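Example record for the data management plan.
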Amino acid sequence: MPEARSWQVREWLSHRLSRGRRELDRMRGRGLREWNRVRGRGLREWNRVRARVRREWRNTPREQRRTWQLVAVSAATGLVVAVVSVLLAGPWDGGRRTAERARATEDGVPGERHGGPDRPAPSAAPVLAALGTRPAPRSPDSGGDAVPPPTGAGLADTLEPLLKDPALGGERSVAVMDVTTGQQVFGAKAGTAIVPASTIKLATGAAALSALGPEHRIRTSVVAGAGKHDIVLVGGGDPTLTARAVKGADHPAALRQLADATARALKKRGAGPYRLGYDTSLYSGPKLHTIGPNENLSPVVPLMADEGRKDDSDHGPAPRAEDPAADAAGVFAGMLRDRGVEVKDEPRAGKAAKGARTVASVRSQPLSSLVERMLTTSDNDIAEALSRQTAIAAGEPASFEGGAKAVTQRLRKLELPLGGVRIADGSGLDRADHVSAGLLAQVLVRAADRGHPELRSLLTGLPVAGFTGTLRTRYAQDAVGRGVVRAKTGTLTGVNSLAGSVVDADGRLLVFAYLTNGTTDATGAQRALDRMASALANCGCR
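Corresponding structural encoding:
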């Protein structure tokens, strides 16, 4: 066989390399085309799924959406707790804690298993039990909860020393409950009813949500009057009705929008002048709370704008109108005039005829939103309005007395402990109110129960320690409970209280209620209560 020359070898190699490159280019081209085809198909499928999820999310009831959001936040919180726990449990070496490796070395060969046949690994429960879920899974090793609840003895070791703080006053009622089991895990006179201050708003909200449902809205209407040119502004009991400009889709009922709709309807009926009356007959009994005129609460009437506030505030103490209904009607008359409707004279109080034709109306935000606002900012006007709405639903007079009776009846229907309980108002401003820590803790357990989704806004409306509402300025930057404790506050002279929820160091969701009477240092009492709530967040307490 003749020997191949060098140039022939180079030519042959060049030919083979060229053919290889062409084959590689063809394969690469086919691969890219196939990749683009698959990617396009995947993107189209992803867009279809995303659109379907968005549609289903928009169609999901508001309360279920809030529940999912709360569960997602809880899960994220639990993940952070787990990561921090893993880091603190170190140091680590090769995926194993060095302390465990040292113990294994003492007992036998490092890294090997000793002591019998293989067993299935214990199941791990979620770090944070979601609201309304079934109890945590059982461990196959012990038969107990994989995330064990705190024990009474463990909680006593943690809380009893804190309860000795003299800043807490002479009377205390304390209850801590495990949400997963619904059982009380610590109590100190938990069934003793004492003055709760604003934490009673939890009971008011529970009664209203149970009686009316979270989607209920309160209507403010303009109806036809007795004469052809008479109209009546009818108060429906919406304390959040506003005369201010509103933005977005989810806003309080607005007098301006009611004036717009009324002006359009009246212009179709013909020229005025029109006479405007206003109807506050929905409520009965005294308008003033027993505390008298006060910057914390307007006269309780079913027609008011911006809670009768005489400044630009939207929560907290403020100068109040003496006659919020007359003021709201006067503002509404001016709005009609600004829209080209001639209104004769000043508005007069009167009563609309039964079954009068509706000219225009606006509705409040859902009741769940009103409850959240009431709890976050401790809004007394909303609390008294919700007490009366509960009374109307029960067929009771819409008064202080009727509201108290209806709220108590509704709490009884929820099978809550009412021993020694006396409810005198909806806001907690009345010192005749008496409830126990056990009652308030049970209210929060019901709110987390999957059988009572209508109560969920009692949890979502709780202020967040160090961030929102009445807890925004409490809990220092480095406080353990900051961002973890969520609780309703209560404060009167000599009365301090705190009731809410917290995730403990093991990821267990607990609810608590701390009530104290006879305090002489409000700031010291608040700090003592905050330390008690933080103590729950900082321990597994077993």
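Summary line stored alongside the record: DSSP finds 13 helices and 14 strands in the chain.
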